[in-house]
Amino acid sequence: MSKPFIIGITGGSGSGKTTFIEAIRSTFSKKELCVISQDDYYRPKEEQTQDEMGIINFDLPKSIDKKAFYKDIKRLTEGKKVTRTEYTFNNDQKKPKILTFSPAPIIIVEGLFIFHYKKINELLDLKIFLHAKENLKVIRRIKRDRVERNYPLDDVLYRYENHVLPTFEKYIRPYIEKCDIVINNNIKFDAGLNVIMCFLKHHLTHMSSKK
């Protein structure tokens, strides 16, 4: 198996990363494309850092087991399968699945800190940044955490102001100028998505022609 083409996708919480990536994933087969997410590499709750109010801050680079994340990305690039227990964001109502990641010609690595982690950053062939206005990201975060993760509204707002926003300014926004493509998602990302889709299809066709 030839070296896969690795795409890194990041953006602030609520920028639309998950929806964007799902749109790509639904277009290609598992033999063509693999998506591996930082979200499945959170350290156990008891290992997380608490802020001055005693609230766990999951929005720090050290919240993630970056060594395991890097190791699994490397395994995929070597043509090996990876299994991982799904992280359910402490939602007791959701039973975690066993996730299987299979090697593919295109690998998408997504997460808040993928550009900040130097060793992972160095693996990326293409870097994409999804961007949106802060007020829109807050609204999207509220909708997601209230519905999907069963978090109280006060908790969502506290975490956004004290954890999410400071982390974005320190560990995510600085990399926007180092990205290959920035896609604005204030209203919709359709144009940017179409560009990426065309590129991926062209890349797969080119790879097939070389076999």
Please explain how this structure is put together.
Helices cover 37% and strands 18% of the residues. It has 211 residues and is an alpha/beta fold. The radius of gyration is 17 Å and the shape is globular. The model has no long low-confidence stretch (mean pLDDT 92).
Total separate domains: 1
- The CATH superfamily is identified as P-loop containing nucleotide triphosphate hydrolases
Main pleated sheet = 5 strands, parallel
Distance between the termini: 10 Å
Low-confidence stretches: none
The CATH C-level class name:
Alpha Beta
Classify the oligomer: single chain
Helicity range of the residues?
25-40%
Tally of helical segments = 6
Number of beta strands: 9
Keywords:
Rossmann fold, 6 helices, alpha/beta, 37% helix, five-stranded parallel sheet, two-stranded antiparallel sheet, 211 residues, 9 strands
Task: Note the topology.
Blueprint: E1 5-11, H1 17-25, E2 33-37, E3 49-50, E4 56-57, H2 66-77, E5 82-85, E6 98-101, E7 106-110, H3 118-121, E8 126-131, H4 134-147, H5 153-172, E9 181-184, H6 190-209
Parallel strand pairs: 1-7, 1-8, 2-7, 8-9
Antiparallel strand pairs: 3-4, 5-6
Helix pairs in contact: 4-5
What's the gist of this structure?
With 211 residues, this protein is an alpha/beta fold.
